[in-house]
Amino acid sequence: MKAQVQYGFYLDTTKCTGCKTCHVACKDRMVGSQRGQGEGAKGISAMKGVLWRRVYEYGGGEWTTNADGSFEQNVFAYYMSIGCNHCNEPACVKYCPTGAMHKRKEDGLVHVNQELCIGCESCACACPYDAPQLDPERKVMTKCDGCFERLAVGRQPICVESCPLRALDFDTMDKLQAKYGEGDGHIAPLPSPEITKPNLIIKANRHGRPVKESIGICYGEPWPVGSEPKLNLVEGSILNPAEV
User: Fold this and answer.
1) Phi and psi of 133, rounded to 5°?
2) What is the pTM of this model?
3) What pLDDT is stored for residue 47 in this prediction?
C-alpha cells in the first residue's frame, strides 16, 4: 500500500554526541502512552528493556607499533540514534499473522493495533531495526508511533524536540529531501536500506563504516544459529550492546 503522505526521519551523525536525551525523552513518553497516563508518567524505570529509540555507539580501529618504536592508530567512534523508520516495505507488517502491524495510509506511519496483537513477536524477529518490542506486562507488541498525536497539533516527535544539538529532524519525506537532499547513504550499524526501504536520511559521520547485511533476527539468521555476534574492534562493532 502506498501512503498518501509519507513521514520520515533525518539524522545528522556528525552532530550526535551520544548524550541519549532523545532515548530518555522517548522512553518517558512511551511509558505514559502505554500505561494511559500521559507523557512521562512513570519515567524510564518502568517497562524495563523496552526502548523505542536507542543510541548506538559504534567504534573500532587499532594501534600499531612501528619499527622505530613509535605508534600509529586509526581508532574511531561515532553515534547512531535509531528508532522505527516507518519503512515503505516494512518487514514487521509482512510477517504479522493477524494484521495488527499495519502501515497507515494517511501518513505512512507504521502502527500496531494492540487489540489484534497476540504477542507472538514475529514482527520483532523480522525487523532489522529492532523497532517492535514486547510489553512484558501486557504481552503485546509496542513500537515507535511517530508521535502521531503530537503531529496532529503541529508539534515534532519528542525525540526531535529534545535533541540539544538538533541532530534529528522529522517531516514528510518530500520536505526532508528538499531540505537535506538524499543524504550520504546509510552506515553501520544500520542494515542495508534495500531490505525494507526505510524513510530515513542520514548525514554520515566521517568515520562511517559500510552498512551491515542483517535482515532480521529470526528470518534472516544474520549470524550462525547458536552463536552470538562477536566484537570486531578493528573493522567496527556496537560498543554498548547492553544499553540498546
Assistant:
1) -140, 145
2) 0.87
3) 83
